[in-house]
Design a protein that fits this description.
Largest sheet: 7 strands, antiparallel
CATH topology of the largest domain: Aminopeptidase
Number of domains: 2
CATH class of the largest domain: Alpha Beta
Number of strands: 20
Oligomer: single chain
Radius of gyration: 22 Å
CATH architecture of the largest domain: 3-Layer(aba) Sandwich
Strand order of the largest sheet: 13-12-11-14-15-10-16
Order of helices and strands: HHEEEEEHEHEEEEEEEHHEEHEEHEEEH
Length: about 425
């Protein structure tokens, strides 16, 4: 027993050390450089985890400067665990430096400590502990650096013909098991206006609820609005500063020839896209979600970016057609990114393994759910999202003061360790 406790303590120390090292690297997307398509921070983080894996004896392969993988085991089916090292912008209002990885009262703070560097740290350590062992399958952690802005990294992995896993999970959501993810469209809508010197700006990323927005009026006055950031897949958890500012401008009669009134009526009216005619709920996924992520008005051009997530009742083509119809001919509607609907059967053998692992370690009942959020699982048909966020906990991911308790990091590692054992047993049974 003492030996097992010592091993877990050593494991947790390694995870925390790697997690803090990763959080201290600012991996917000930055100006591209040679060898760093998303900025130097993402490249540094990718180098860090690959060197850590190589020191532990894992085989590594870098496809390009966007995605790479590390693997233990040489035979059997491929089990993969995709994680991402990039993060959304930290924003303002933190009580801790978002890139200091402070640990206070058993809690680590920092952008990415939950979304998704915890997954990278845990899986790197768990696979490193199995280096040199004879395994019934190959265990591969895939490191991406563009999950937050379109998944071009994993799309490149798939398009390059890299082997797709038949087993595994994506550690980038909540426990117990998230077996389905809504389809998603990132839309850019724009129209010419007569602004008469009005300038409006709000939001930084389409998949974040804007916490700040401001406008410079033709007479030089400045208006500002504050909100509360949240993940774009759950806009109801935030307060959209753009929405507040637009309504203030329209109420004051400053609306760029009626264009802002259209934004208010069609893009700010609800969080389900009902005003656009795209809220068609289904049994599995419920209502559509609509996040007005950014709004810019400058040089007589009004541009908004929308994060639309929807279930099986609508297809992407129908969503776009309905948005175009609701906005009218003055508006241009562009599809920036699209992600398909993802749903794995509840009776999938690997899903059962993951639920069993969660129940054995936590003592809590396991169940499947679906979500509006998107993970790498949507591009890998066999995989589901599995943790690391525990039920009933708050992490602040995509918001201020992102954090995770060290005790929860350890518990998630216990669940993942048990899940990997179960996956290896499942792989061995398939070979018998």
């Amino acid at each position: 027993m003492a030996g097992a406790l010592c091993r877990v303590a050593e494991r947790d120390e390694k995870i925390l050390r790697l997690l803090r090292a990763l959080v201290r690297i600012n991996t917000e997307h930055a100006v591209p450089e040679s060898g760093a398509p998303y900025g130097r921070g993402c490249a540094r983080a990718l180098d860090l985890v690959l060197k850590e894996c190589e020191r532990a004896g894992l085989a590594t392969h870098r496809l390009d400067e966007k995605v790479a993988w590390a693997q233990v085991g040489t035979v059997g089916p491929l089990a993969a665990f995709p994680v991402h090292l990039d993060v959304v912008p930290s924003g303002e209002g933190w009580d801790h430096d978002p890139y200091a990885a402070d640990v206070e009262d058993g809690v680590i703070y920092g952008r990415g400590c939950m979304d998704n560097k915890i997954g990278a740290a845990i899986l790197t350590v768990l696979l490193s502990e199995r280096a040199g062992e004879e395994l019934p399958c190959r265990l591969r952690v895939i490191f991406g650096t563009d999950e937050e802005t379109g998944m071009s990294d994993l799309r490149g992995y798939v398009e390059a013909g890299e082997e797709l896993p038949s087993l595994g999970f994506v550690p980038d959501a909540s426990f117990p098991v998230v077996r389905g993810e809504k389809a998603r469209l990132h839309l850019r809508v724009s129209r010419a206006v007569e602004a008469h010197g009005l300038v409006v700006s709000g939001g930084s990323m389409v998949n974040m609820v804007p916490a700040e927005a401001h406008a410079t009026l033709p007479d030089g006055r400045v208006l500002a609005a504050e909100g509360r950031s949240a993940h774009g897949s759950t806009p109801e958890r935030g307060e959209n500063a753009v929405r507040t500012l637009v309504r203030e401008l329209v109420a004051a009669g400053v609306d760029a020839g009626g264009a802002l009134a259209e934004v208010d009526r069609l893009l700010c009216a609800d969080l389900t896209g009902a005003a656009l005619g795209i809220d068609e709920p289904d049994e599995a996924f419920g209502h559509t979600s609509l996040n007005l992520g950014t709004l810019e008005l400058a040089d007589d051009l009004l541009t908004a970016e929308l994060d639309v997530r929807f279930g099986s009742a609508l297809g992407a083509v129908e969503v776009v057609e309905r948005v175009r119809g609701a906005l009218g001919p003055a508006w241009k509607v562009e599809v920036v990114q699209a992600k398909p609907l993802h749903l794995v059967p509840e009776d999938d053998p690997c899903v059962k393994v993951l639920l069993d692992a969660y129940e054995r370690v936590t003592g809590e009942p396991g169940a499947c759910s679906v979500m509006a959020g998107g993970t790498y699982a949507s591009l890998l048909p066999a995989l589901v999202a599995f943790g690391p966020k525990l039920p009933g906990t708050h992490s602040g991911a995509h918001g201020v003061n992102e954090h995770v308790r060290l005790a929860d990091v350890s518990l998630a590692a216990d669940v993942y360790d048990e899940a990997i054992r179960g996956i290896m047993a499942l792989a061995a049974s398939r070979e018998d």
